[in-house]
Amino acid sequence: MNIVSKFTVGSEKGIDLFLALKEAHLKEIYDGITDPVKLRTYIEHELDRRAAINDLNDLSTRLIVVFDDDQPAGYAIIRNAFDRPGILEGKRAVHLSFFILSGHNIPEVRLSLWQKCLSVTRNHAHWTELPAGSPIIPFLETVDFTVVGQSELKPFSIPSQIMVRRNF
């Protein structure tokens, strides 16, 4: 087993990789719990290539892709967090979008992706919002994230948990 997490840029290959993982991510979250036609329309909107290129070329956004035996297994997007949970007001904070394909959601993959995120955000507070019951939540709790609130993921109003890590 060879697990590697790498920073990825908005190149053609990087965008293709990100969009494929993002599509899988959206399907894992919403498939079976929302109307398939609405989901397909939403996914098409979210997979806008030009918007992804612009987003990934923004200096305040970083994409990390984790590979398991050279196969893309998941990603994390790190963004400066201007909108943040109230508990983090006045603190340097980043927002993490964290996803690992269900077939690769093993401790070594999760830890590799988290350690790469931490390598560039060590001096920041972290927050994320995940679907309630996400298999990533127990892992994040082991690296000092705590649930600080409940919300709903847009656009389908899926119950979610807001998690914060303030240990820095």
Secondary-structure-derived class: alpha+beta
Strands side by side in the biggest sheet: 1-2-3-4-5-7-6
Q: What gross morphology would you assign?
A: globular
Helix count equals 5
Mean pLDDT: 92
Please outline the major beta sheet.
7 strands, mixed
Fraction in beta strands: 25-35%
Counted beta strands: 7
Alpha-carbon Rg, integer: 15 Å
N- and C-termini, Cα separation: 31 Å
* Helix content estimate: 25-40%
Order of helices and strands: EHHHEEEHEHEE
Q: What does the model show?
A:
The chain is of the alpha+beta class and 168 residues long. Helix content is 35%, strand content 33%. The chain is built from five helices and seven strands; from the N terminus they run E-H-H-H-E-E-E-H-E-H-E-E. The protein has helices at 12-30, 36-46, 49-56, 107-121, 137-142, and strands at 3-8, 61-68, 71-80, 93-100, 125-131, 146-153, 158-165. A seven-stranded mixed beta sheet has the order 1-2-3-4-5-7-6. Strand 6 and strand 7 form a beta hairpin. The model has no long low-confidence stretch (mean pLDDT 92).
